Amino acid sequence: MSIVSDWRLMNQEAYLKNKRLYHINYNKKEEHDHDHCAFCMQKFYSENQRAYCTTDYYYWICEACFEDFKEIFHWKIDKK
To answer: Relative to the CA of 40, which of 5, 11, 69, 79 has its CA 20 to 30 Å away?
Structure first.
């Protein structure tokens, strides 16, 4: 399957291309008890789940989707 036709790509380039990310354990937000991967919709709910997130903690990316899309999205990893 071509990466361009991957079902998980839904215009995330508009808000995730060239972003700086943290690689951290998931942390819940006060307003809700879980988040989803911005690509595959995997549910994050446990603080033991390792994932990537934008520096504002708004978008979360599972490790599998990070590996699949890191080259086309040109993400930079920041130290937390």
So the answer is: 79
